[in-house]
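Mods, move this if it's the wrong board.
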Amino acid sequence: MRHETGMPRYVFKESFQKDVLIDADKDWKPAELLAYVLDDEPLFEVESSFAYSDTNYIIACLAVEEVTGTSLYDHVMERVVKKAGLKQVEPQNKRKYTGMAQGYNGSDPFFSGNALENGKSRYNWKFEWAGGGLLITSKDLAVLAKKIYEGEMFSKDLLDEYFNGRDAGQMGGTWGLGVHIRDGEKGKIYGHSGFMPGYVTNMMYFEDKGFSICYQVNGSAPEHRGILRDLPSLAKIVRESL
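Not the wrong board. Structure tokens:
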């Protein structure tokens, strides 16, 4: 959860990026995803550095399924979505969703072009599984962020360990148990971002105000990400308006 394993990211393997487009309806299994990196050398010795990797979440959630005896999606929908009272959340396990906006990925080498064709994804989004794995509205994600970071989703006694972060390197700040922690002008900012070809998501919780925000953009091409560079300015505007 703190990305200290040195496990490479399977999503950036050239072989995976080719395979995911061969059979658009492939029902991806976690073990198949891990197989793309199991023969790779680790990026570093365990706990000696930091490297964000979706692969870590795959491993962690395989453990969740083993311990609980239920599927990850069943567990998350019951223990997280239902508990938080979220209304617009779906498991990310198919190709077509009602009301899904077209995603634009431009010239990015990672699945270049539009994300949808005739209203369906060009591949089965289940390949991300625990690395993201849910379709959720900005409002529901902002609500969930506040509930998580204020300790409503689990015992508050666990918050100290949850926020016990490690140096996040080039990402800045520190990384706790699945949470990016940064120092704002008036206090801590907790959050997490997400990327899918054609889509970008970011959520933030401002500790000093007890306030969370989330934005989602249906464009992920590098040449169109200028809006994301203004995130510090956006955060400042939000704080000053409260």
